[in-house]
């Protein structure tokens, strides 16, 4: 099997063009389907209290498999995994772990599954869920290298999220600064007094300071 590293360079170029986590997750899912030798792929973000949110999927079949997990109260993608770990179903026709889900998946011609634990994002576990129409599709020797490639893909995705957060923080800071200046001029306040005014109005109206600032800057907030 050829080295996976050129594929990572391709993924890096894709992720450079992504604006947010959802778009980046979609790029990683497509990368997995195209480059990691699987037929269907998706990424899930796992909540601390349980349950998973599907960040991206390559096709409607992944959504059907998610619905089966909800209906049958379990499946290989229903639980978080530590970074670098994996859960594999070699053949869904003979699976003792989730027999009901696997039988239903086999009925959809999904015959093997591999779920990989990726680096956490914002403290939440992330999994890359891979599905194949071939039994034992994830047992070849190259999967050790490809598993490391998937981990690197997860790290790149986390970086996309961090850049998005930084971009949002800078935008929020600039917006609040504009609103602060407007309040200073409107009410003849100092910078500190204007900030205290924004916080007080935010608490009284139960509106986030950022949203209040946006209203003031747009002229929607009453004088």
Q: What's the gist of this structure?
A:
With 223 residues, the protein is of the alpha+beta class. The chain has helices at residues 5-16, 21-35, 60-72, 99-107, 143-187, 191-205, 209-218; strands at residues 40-46, 52-57, 86-89, 112-121, 124-132.
Word description of this protein:
With 223 residues, this protein is an alpha+beta fold. The protein has 2 domains: 5-165, Beta-Lactamase; 169-218, Arc Repressor Mutant, subunit A (Orthogonal Bundle). 53% of the residues lie in helices and 16% in strands. It has helices spanning 5-16, 21-35, 60-72, 99-107, 143-187, 191-205, 209-218; strands at residues 40-46, 52-57, 86-89, 112-121, 124-132. The protein has a 5-stranded antiparallel sheet. A hairpin with a 5-residue loop joins strand 1 (40-46) and strand 2 (52-57). The chain is elongated and about 75 Å long. Mean pLDDT is 85; it is low at 1-6. InterPro entries: ANTAR, CheY-like_superfamily, GAF-like_dom_sf, GAF_ANTAR, WH-like_DNA-bd_sf. Keywords: Transcription, Transcription regulation.
Keywords, separated by commas or semicolons:
7 helices, Beta-Lactamase, alpha+beta, 223 residues, elongated, disordered N terminus, five-stranded antiparallel sheet, Arc Repressor Mutant, subunit A
């Amino acid at each position: 099997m050829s080295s996976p590293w050129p594929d990572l360079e391709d993924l890096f170029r894709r992720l450079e063009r992504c604006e947010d986590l959802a778009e980046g997750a979609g790029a990683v899912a497509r990368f997995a389907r195209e480059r990691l030798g699987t037929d269907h792929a998706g990424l899930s973000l796992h909540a601390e209290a349980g349950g998973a949110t599907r960040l991206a999927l390559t096709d409607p079949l992944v959504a059907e498999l998610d619905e089966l997990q909800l209906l049958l109260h379990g499946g290989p993608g229903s639980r978080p995994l530590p970074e670098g770990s994996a859960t594999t179903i070699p053949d869904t026709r003979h699976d003792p772990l989730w027999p009901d889900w696997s039988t239903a998946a086999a009925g959809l011609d999904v015959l093997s599954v591999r779920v990989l634990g990726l680096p956490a994002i914002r403290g939440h576990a992330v999994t890359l869920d891979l599905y194949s129409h071939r039994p034992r599709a994830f047992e070849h020797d190259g999967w050790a290298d490809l598993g490391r490639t998937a981990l690197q893909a997860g790290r790149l995705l986390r970086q996309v999220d961090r850049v998005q957060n930084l971009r949002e923080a800078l935008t929020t800071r600039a917006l609040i600064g504009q609103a602060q200046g407007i309040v200073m001029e409107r009410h003849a306040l100092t910078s500190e007094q204007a900030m205290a005014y924004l916080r007080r109005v935010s608490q009284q109206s139960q509106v986030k300071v950022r949203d209040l600032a946006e209203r003031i800057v747009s002229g929607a907030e009453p004088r």
